Amino acid sequence: MTANHKLDDIDLKILSELQKDGRIRINELASRVGLSLPPCLRRVRSLRSRGVIKAIRATIDEKVLGYEVVSFVSIQLASQAKATLEAFEASIATLPLVLQSWRISGEADFLLKCVAPDVEGMHQQLRQFAAMPEVRTIRSLPVLGVAKDAPLPIPGDPTPRTDP
C-alpha cells in the first residue's frame, strides 16, 4: 500500500461498514465508527478522493433484467505489443455486455465477465471477439451458479459480511 493510501483503524471500520451497507446514512456510519458527523464525512470523502473507495453501487440480479447467460471468456491475443493490447482494450470498452475485463498472465491475456439474454446472444458476442484482428483464441466458461460472492476482507474486522 502506498503512503497515499495508509489506512488507520477508523478508516478500516468505515470501509467495513460501507461494505456491509453501502446505503448507510452518514450519521449512522459516524455512530458505528465512533466519530462525530463532520470528521466521518471528511474521512469518507478522503477515502473516495484517494481512490480507496472506487464506487458504491447496487448489485443487480442479471436475470431480472433479462440476461439469462453469464460467462467468463478468456482471450489470448495475437501479440503482446502495446498497440495490440490498447486496441483490444478500446474495442471491448465499447461493448456494453462485457461487464468486467482483467488483463491476466498465463495461457490467456484477458479474462472478461460477459452477460447475454440467451445462448444465441452469447454466441453472437463470441463471434464479435473472433472478428477482432487482435484476438488469437477464445475460451468461454459459462456460469452455472454463484458459489460465493463476498466483499474484500478488512484487516481487523471481527464481523465480515459473508452473505452473497
Structure characterization notes:
The chain has five helices and four strands, in the order αααβαββαβ. It is of the alpha+beta class. It has two domains: 7-49, Winged helix-like DNA-binding domain superfamily/Winged helix DNA-binding domain (Arc Repressor Mutant, subunit A, Orthogonal Bundle); 62-142, Lrp/AsnC effector binding domain/regulation of amino acid metabolism (RAM) domain (Alpha-Beta Plaits), CATH 3.30.70.920. A four-stranded antiparallel β-sheet has the order 2-3-1-4. Helix 1 (9-20) packs across helix 2 (26-33) and helix 2 crosses helix 3 (37-49). The radius of gyration is 20 Å and the shape is elongated. The two termini are 27 Å apart. The model has no long low-confidence stretch (mean pLDDT 92).
- Low-confidence region ranges: none
Q: From the 3D coordinates, which CATH architecture of the largest domain would you assign?
A: 2-Layer Sandwich
State the total count of DSSP E strands: 4
The helix tally amounts to 5
Termini Cα gap? 27 Å
Listing every helix as H and every strand as E from the N terminus to the C terminus, the arrangement reads HHHEHEEHE
Largest sheet: 4 strands, antiparallel
The largest sheet has its strands arranged as 2-3-1-4
Estimated radius of gyration: 20 Å
**Which class of the largest domain in CATH terms?**
Alpha Beta
SSE class: alpha+beta
Number of domains: 2
What is the 3D form?
elongated
Q: In what range is the share of β-strand residues? A: 15-25%
CATH topology of the largest domain: Alpha-Beta Plaits
Helix content: 25-40%
